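subagent[fold] <- orchestrator: predict structure for attached chain, return tokens only, no commentary.
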Amino acid sequence: MTRQVHELAEQQYGVRGHITSLNPIRPENAPGPWETEALQTFERGKTEVSSVEKMEGKEYIRLMRPLITEKGCLKCHAAQGYQEGDIRGGISVSVPMEPLWAIAQRNITTLAVGHILLWLIGLGWLILGTQRLRRSERERNRAEEELRETQKQLAHQEKLAVLGELAGGVAHEIRNPLGAIKNAGYLLNMAVEEPEPEVKETIEILQKEVETSERVVSNLLDFARPKLPTRCKLNINDVVQQALSRRPVPESVQVVSQLDETLPAVLADPDQLNRIFDNLILNAVQAMPEGGRLVVKSEASDSEWVTVTFADTGAGIDDEALGKIFEPLFTTKAKGIGLGLALTKMLVEAHGGTIEVESEVGKGTSFTVSLPICGEETE
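subagent[fold] -> orchestrator:
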């Protein structure tokens, strides 16, 4: 029966079975070298022997256990001198390793693929988490920056509101006395037919300083109570030329006009544009006390914008002051209250335009006003 089981196992699974003994009855039961060594270890008391061995060039896992003589075995083996309990041989099983290696390889592959997938999933979640963290950090930084900017704007608006109220009050308090001084100067000039040189110079200084004070008062009132521009279609070159003709320029300052005569018309408030250009011309002249060159240039930068640039050859503005020149009450001049450029910027932006400044210390400064060609006319 055992031999039949062995034959069936070898046919179906390649598993080899063998009953053997150091003293076999049948020659085919004679042990091989490995089996002989195993049988000898059984006689020394070992109960099982196993190892991986090569058989016919292939690997097998071999297992062998001893056959113990029982009472029923003595019918055939008593003549060999065996007694009940003696080790009369062994039974071995040799299982081919090739299918086992294949199973192990599949398991290793499955395990490796599983680990790789888990690693990739973990890496994916890590990358996703990192990206979300970075995005969250960017959003937080942007929100903090927006909050700081909003707080800065609110503080600036509060400052402007307080400054506007103060400016309006001061302007009204000064305007009436200033008008009286102006009239007095005019009457004095009319009353004195042939004044002494010193008196004449004093009257001229008085009139000049009154004009300067009136301009400061006008700036204060315009800043405190800004008016919406009353727009009409106009030629911007005409406004530039009017501003140049109305603003006295010292002989030491050379004015160069480079006005594009083909410019399209713009919709703007002529009075407010005059204030803008007058402020910029005055700034340029004051920046060149020793004389210099003022270039006024107009052009169409593209199909939507007209630009007017005022470039002087004055001392220039350093980087620190350049970032503050449009702030109210900021000035680098010995005279003035620092509202001219702030008011200029406010008037330009009321027209939907922009004003930009470029400056280099020792070489000069240029202000560029850009106004849209198209717009709706305000009645």
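orchestrator: received. Logging for downstream: The first helix runs from residue 2 to 13. The chain has a mean pLDDT of 83.
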